[in-house]
Fold Cytidylate kinase.
Amino acid sequence: LAGVVIAVDGPAAAGKGTLARRLAAELGLPYLDTGLLYRATGRRLLDAGADPRDTLAAEAAARSLSPADLERPDLRGPEADRAASAVAAIPAVRAALLDWQRGFGRTHGAVLDGRDIGTVVFPDAPVKLFVTASDEERARRRWLELRGRGVTAELPAVLADLRARDAQDAGRAVAPLKPAADALLLDTTALDAEAAFRAARALVAERL
Ligand code: C5P
């Protein structure tokens, strides 16, 4: 399987990350969480007191990301979510991160998760999964995850934040969140992580 690229896209908190990481481990491929690139870019703007919609500052931040930026502990949480989604709507930011993502996957293959992997970053990937779950189930999972990290949040607020971010991600002009025409859809609403992984593995096996 060396050299194969597997694209895993879908809305926030659908379970893509867990699934993509496990698939990568199983198939012996490198794994990249591309959301981290947008999160780290947004975080640098927040740190600098800049507006995450500031096109020039956002492009400069995206171009100068270092590996250490991707390992920061403060890349998750409502503020980081919003900043990531804001910078992700800026075409120059996406262009700056595109070569980086392609370089990561091109040489040895990889499993990448994100929003536009199957549509823009690797449109020729032989396997594309589009992972979804109902809004309520995704909000419940995100709420549990926040609670596990000691963050108190109200479920309705988590649901509203998720919907706002999905609307922004799906509504933007450049590389919007949407399934590639040849993506395999995986609805994980009624599946736990183990069942979702088995279903994904079966879909991957069909295509490889
Ligand atoms: O996947 P995650 O929730 O970490 O992504 C954070 C944000 O980064 C998303 O809401 C989206 O705006 C952006 N993103 C993107 N394209 C990707 C991955 C993430 O636009 N490939």
Residues 155-171 form the longest helix (17 residues). The chain has nine helices and five strands.
